[in-house]
Amino acid sequence: MAKKRKTQIAKFIKEIEATAKRLRADVQKRAKAAGLDKKLHQAAAQLEKRAKTAAGHVRKHAADLKKQLAKKKPTRKPARKARTRKKRKK
Fold first, then answer.
1. pLDDT above 90: percentage of residues in the chain
2. Which of 11, 31, 41, 83 could staple 36 via S-S, CB 3.0–4.6 A?
3. Which residues does 76 contact at the CB level (< 8 Å), separation at least 6?
């Protein structure tokens, strides 16, 4: 019983994978026919370029912040003056 169920599940998964491949191929064909393929690649390249630029900026600012924190010495409160007793007049 369990073996039959596993084979049914495996068959179902294969069917889904085959359908997904067919759908992907169909979408690619229609995109090429509509001229979207080139535009999508251009948009993806532009997004990738912007992401790299943003990552570079973040890296630069993080390095600058790290340097600033390394330069800055920890602040300490100044030591309090010791109170001296006033001498009594005789």
1. 8
2. 31
3. none
* DSSP SS3 for 67: helix
Within 13 Å, how many C-alpha atoms sit on residue 6's CB side?
3
Q: 36 burial class (0-12, 13-18, 19+ CB within 10 angstroms)?
A: middle
CA 48 to chain centre: 13
Q: For residues 31 and 37, is the Cβ–Cβ distance under 8 A?
A: yes
Distance CA 32, CA 64 (A): 46
How many residues comprise the chain?
A: 90
Asked if pLDDT for residue 1 goes beyond 70, the answer is: no
* Cβ neighbours for 37, distance < 8 A, ≥ 6 positions apart: 28, 31
Res 2 pLDDT > 80: no
